[in-house]
Amino acid sequence: MELIDTHCHLDVADFDADRREVLARTRASGVRRLVIPAVDAAHWGSLLALCRQEPGLYPALGLHPLYLEQHRQEDVEALKAAVVRHRPVAVGEIGLDFFVAGLDREHQQRLFEAQLAVARNADLPVILHVRKSHDQVLAALRRIRVRGGIAHAFNGSLQQAGQYLELGFKLGFGGTLTYERSSKIRGLAKALPLEAIVLETDAPDMAVAAHRGERNSPEYLPDCLRALAEVRDEDPALLAEHTTQNACAVLRLDEAPGRT
Ligand SMILES: [Zn+2]
Hints:
The chain is an alpha/beta fold. It is 41% helix and 16% strand. Bound molecules: zinc ion.
């Protein structure tokens, strides 16, 4: 069995003390490839360096909406140059967060659309962060057509899910699946076609139920797979195969220069 963690912030300081050990345990658990999305320009260099050092790590470069105040005007230009030079597997993590108070929506929208244009011009998929903003994100995706991508930690409606699928997107499911009370997310994971789903941990955030309150880790991705299998009443091996295939297809991982 081979799994792909399509969303893992392994580059952040939470993993500085034991990143190698975490990676060793992650690989031993069957998670062979990880996509590491960026949050701000200041950390692109260290993220790219990490992905060069370790086999099976794939970078995405972008400017995360939650760090709006940190992004400078020239960062979008820098992103344009960086995607040409480094060929990440995606532009991300980008999007709109209308859940957190105090984040200027117009500013987010401008930053998001500018990055969608970067992705479109570079023919790259995008990794989306979407909270309380699915309709606005979908409208932007219809205006600026990118080569699909992943709506990370998907929490929209079944109807919105269908619209993402039509636009060439996959939907990311992770630790939330492992909580029995997450009836909405579990309902979605059950109702969606298998080709819609990719797995992710979002580590160090969104800990799985068995490690509640602790740092989340990509080594726990098999917990998410087991929860998905339980919810869908399907064979975990079959789900592993399909979710891995889905991730490879949407991010073109088999063509990416990352070492495996
Ligand atoms: Zn993230």
